[in-house]
Amino acid sequence: MVKKKRHHYIPRFYLKRFSINNNGKFLALYNLKNRKFIQTAPLKSQAYENFLYGEDDEIENALAEMEGDVSRMFNYWTDERLFYPPPPETNGFKLLKRFILYQAFRTPKSGNDIMEKINQGMKTFVKEFKPDLWESFKDGKLVHENAVLLGLFKSIENEHLLNYLDCKFLVNLSVLPFITSDSPVILYNQLLEKSENYIGATGLVAKGLQIFYPVHPRLMICLFDSVVYDFGENNEDCASTESIEEVHQLNGLQLTNCDAQLFFNDFISEEYVIEICKNFEEYRGTSKNINRIINQGDRKFLLTGFEDIHIGLELDFFKLKVNPVDYKNEITPLRHPSFERPIKKISLDN
Fold this sequence. Notes:
Blueprint: E1 6-8, H1 12-15, E2 26-31, E3 36-42, E4 48-50, H2 58-79, H3 91-105, H4 108-129, H5 134-137, H6 147-157, E5 166-172, E6 180-181, E7 186-188, H7 190-194, E8 210-216, E9 219-224, E10 229-231, E11 238-241, H8 244-257, E12 261-264, H9 270-280, E13 288-296, E14 299-307, E15 318-320
Parallel strand pairs: 5-11
Antiparallel strand pairs: 1-4, 2-3, 2-12, 5-9, 6-12, 7-8, 8-9, 10-15, 13-14
Helix pairs in contact: 2-3, 3-6, 4-6, 8-9
């Protein structure tokens, strides 16, 4: 018997940390589609869809169990103000990485993005290799009965791809709080942005990968490639920023990557939301799916890739340890040799 109809793709325990007066009942939000600022919105009514993870409780219950374990860590950090990430290789660290990965792929936006990539790639393939089918295919699209589950299951298979990332905390000491959104996990890569080589830069195996996840108006979890970046000073578990501009940029990433809604507490004004839209809305929709036909002798191959949104991010607490020029012409350099695998080539002769 189904007991849970509402499946929250952003956990309520998470949104409570952005609630008004930290009461866990109401938060402020901005809906980009309707251009509507709401100062007091019921928290329990946000970021859910009916039966998002299927019409039984199995997956929802599994996610809820994980959320219960993670929420205790969040309480430790945000309520007790003890900013110590779980030590590497501990169960707590593995759980945190798993939770962040699942959060990145459990949203409706993630499901839509996955299907868009599949459809664009398939149309390129059919047009080139099956032109006789093109007229009947060009205006159609492939659909999946639950694209969100497709992405979530794929992330479960790829948990190991977050290996070789360090975890540190960023403490926000500026007067401007962090905001969050209906797609709060941000994948970025300052190394490959500076090398002007952003194709595949936010793939989970990419060298220079960064993951930004705000968990409180004053606290952000950062996962990053420590071979590429120094974070903060003196090898400590956390760094801090007093820079309004740095926090503004990180808030801008929430706007550029969200589906429809930003969430925040009552310290964020409507005037600030208008300002952040003015500064960053031009980047929304600039991600690209790349599908190219490569000719090699008498054979043709389909090359697929992507270029996610990037804004020219500048953060003083992240310092590059390598030269970006060295990666200017390398297609998606890998973070670690263990991620290498044989390339599978599928080709069709005309």
